Amino acid sequence: MILPAAFSLAVFCAWIPRQVNDIKKAEWLLGTWENKTPRGSVYETWEKVNEAEFAGKSFMVKEKDTLVFETIRLVQEEGGLFYIPVVKNQNQGLPVRFQAKEIAEGTLVFENQGHDFPQVISYTKTGADSLTAEISGTRNGQERRQMFQMKKIK
Fold first, then answer.
1. Long-range own/partner contacts, residues 100-108 (CB < 8 A, 24 or more apart)
2. Which domains does the chain possess?
3. For residue 117, what is the DSSP state?
4. What's the longest Cα–Cα distance across the chain?
5. Are 152 and 33 in contact (CB under 8 A)?
6. Would you call the peptide bond into 118 cis, given omega within 30 degrees of 0 as the criterion?
7. How far apart are the first and last CA of the chain?
8. Strand segments (E) across 19-141
9. Per-residue DSSP letters for 73-99?
10. For the segment 93-152, what is each residue's pLDDT rounded down to a tens digit?
11. Within a 13 Å sphere around the CA of 146, how many CA atoms are in the beta-carbon half?
């Protein structure tokens, strides 16, 4: 009787730190990143809210105006790590949840196969001050993929 209880406790204790540490593996994402485009620079900025949440947003600065495209929450919950964007003029302004499917040093992959597009959002650290963000999935029956090369500026 004691052996099964001890085993269950050991499994539970091993599970708890892993859940909390998932967001720690994403700390390299913190800061401000720039993607230079022909229409101007697009920025993505991430800050730590607390031990279980990061807040992000993507935006463009046009003259003196800041045009926000989306706000994002990266949240550690009991069920895993979730990427939760709210995109301007999409999904009636409601958040969409993407669950982490891969969390490694320098790689984050989130999926929501029920979403129209994208179904996959990923970030890959490609250098000390660079990353590639990618959105991919199926739209209108065709595979689509967009990549964004970003450099850390802060």
1. 100/22, 103/22, 103/25, 103/26, 104/25, 105/25, 105/28, 106/28, 108/25, 108/26, 108/29, 108/83
2. 2-152 (2.40.128)
3. S
4. 70
5. yes
6. yes
7. 55
8. 31-37, 40-50, 53-62, 65-77, 80-87, 98-104, 107-111, 120-127, 130-139
9. EEEEETTEEEEEEEETTSGGG----EE
10. 899 999 999 999 899 999 999 999 999 999 999 999 999 999 999 999 999 999 999 999
11. 9
Residue 94 corresponds to which amino acid? Answer: L
At which residue do the structure tokens 């800050």 appear? 47
Tokens 């706000």 sit on residue? 71
Q: What is the mean pLDDT of residues 26-41?
A: 94
Structure tokens at 106: 């320098």
pLDDT tens sequence across 46-96: 999 999 999 999 999 888 888 999 999 999 999 999 999 999 888 888 999
